[in-house]
Amino acid sequence: MRFSNRLKHWYLQNKRDLPWRKAHEPYQIWLSEIILQQTRVEQGLPYYERFILAYPEVEDLAAAPQDEVLKLWQGLGYYSRARNLHETAKYVVKELGGKFPDTYKGLVQLKGVGDYTASAIASICFDEPVAVVDGNVYRVLSRVFGIDTPINSTAGKKEFKALAEELLDKEDPSTFNQALMEFGALHCKPQNPACEVCPFNDQCLALKENRVKELPVKLKKTKVRKRYFNYLVFDLDEEKTILEQRKGKGIWNGLYQFPLVETDSLVEQEQLVKTEAFETHLNGGKFSVELYNSEPVVHKLSHQHLFTRFWVVQADAAHSNSIALAGIKEYPVPVLIENFLKDYLPPAYK
């Protein structure tokens, strides 16, 4: 039996009932694929449902304020996805009349849409015979065909894309692509794949050669950078605090945070208050400082670990960025600060 026939037979018996599969509309498929980039379905599904409820059509998403979109995205991480999502929605509405491109070549030109996402939308919505290659696909193909070329190398990306194109069911690319991704997610898992009942266990080279745990091969990540964050949690008169919006191309662009003093290592109070950044935030006013967490919170991102301390600063000076403590939950913040607020805020403000 052909690879595609076995795969589709498994899919029709085992596929999950996911909301974006009920209608092959480009907006819904695009939204689901952007949310599910680097995110498991179990985690992403509630976000998809909230976005569809808030923005049923691409026009609704395009008209939303960015802060509102970022707040709805809060907790998913990789916030550039949310910003690109919003920008693309505005582009589709303003420049394309609310209609998504109906070809791979057109889709891949959209901001935040790469080869995988364009292939998924083009095949699922428009039956264009283009193969998808994501983490699940890499895993299935590397195991079944015994390929040890690193999946995050240029050579590996070309090799796996070519193989996926060769295997693709050109008559039904939508079902084939969804089946291949679903098979990797549910059956050929990273840990403990169900090899005993696998429809490919008679041809899987990784199983025959006892290399299931070794494949796929991935080149080692770049060195993790350590950063030391000191957040100044202002406790101002009239139950106010200070939030600032992050700017630039670094992490969490567009999200809000407490005033930040970044240092080269963990510092004590005496060192902190002498930094130029601390003095800038105080504007020369009177203050007192108390460390909220003696043990730093270690927040791990893909290429950096943030060692974070929160310092409660009592001050009576007015500040242009001050906001009511009761309204802080309306601002989109990194999950690092969201977790702090759950512990810090009085019950009435949570």
TrEMBL record:
This enzyme's EC code(s): 3.2.2.31
Co-factor remark: Binds 1 [4Fe-4S] cluster.
Residue ranges the record marks as coiled coil: none
Keywords, in A-Z order: 4Fe-4S, DNA damage, DNA repair, Glycosidase, Hydrolase, Iron, Iron-sulfur, Metal-binding
Cofactor(s) of this protein: [4Fe-4S] cluster
Domain HhH-GPD: 35-186
Gene3D superfamilies according to UniProt: Helix-hairpin-Helix base-excision DNA repair enzymes (C-terminal), Hypothetical protein, domain 2, Nucleoside Triphosphate Pyrophosphohydrolase
GO BP terms, alphabetized: base-excision repair; mismatch repair
Domain of life: Bacteria
Recorded catalytic activity of this chain's protein: Hydrolyzes free adenine bases from 7,8-dihydro-8-oxoguanine:adenine mismatched double-stranded DNA, leaving an apurinic site
One annotated GO molecular function: metal ion binding
Protein role: Adenine glycosylase active on G-A mispairs. MutY also corrects error-prone DNA synthesis past GO lesions which are due to the oxidatively damaged form of guanine: 7,8-dihydro-8-oxoguanine (8-oxo-dGTP).
Family statement: Belongs to the Nth/MutY family.
Full protein name: Adenine DNA glycosylase
Upper lineage: Bacteria, Pseudomonadati, Bacteroidota, Flavobacteriia, Flavobacteriales
